[in-house]
Amino acid sequence: VYGVEDKIEFIVGDFFKVVPNLKADVVFLSPPWGGPEYLNQDVFDLKLMGGMMDGFAVFSTAQKVTENIAYFVPRNTNVDQLASLAGKGGKVEVEQNLLNKKTKTLTAYYGKLVST
Question: Residues 29-61: pLDDT tens digits?
Fold first, then answer.
């Protein structure tokens, strides 16, 4: 559609096994959230990631590939935690993803993905 199909490669696999050999301009993270139980939490904790994994470790691993990261997370994610991932003096842009005028998810952008 946009003439970029030859510039995009989708990789499906265990992130922690794939990432050591990965070279990329951007990493899109959409780790498991621990099932629908995340909706029962007032605030979703990235550190605990619904008991699935450490969301900070996932982000740190992605930073070994690139600083340009998009992180797709539940709508009730702790925004202070998302901001802390940018590091001191770093920037993050948090986008609310809406469906039928309701926030369903968030996407946090880092590195050169942040609008200037």
Answer: 999 887 788 888 899 999 998 888 999 999 999
Residue 116 pLDDT exceeds 80: no
- Tokens at residue 9, please? 């490669």
**With contact defined as beta carbons under 8 Å apart, do 76 and 106 qualify?**
no
How far apart are alpha carbons 81 and 65 in whole angstroms?
21
Task: Determine if the pTM surpasses 0.85.
Answer: yes
Q: Which long-range contacts (CB under 8 A, 24 or more apart) does 57-66 make?
A: 58/15, 58/29, 58/31, 59/29, 59/85, 61/15, 61/16, 61/19, 62/19, 62/27, 62/29, 64/19, 64/20, 65/19, 65/22, 65/23, 65/24, 65/27, 66/24, 66/25, 66/26, 66/27, 66/111
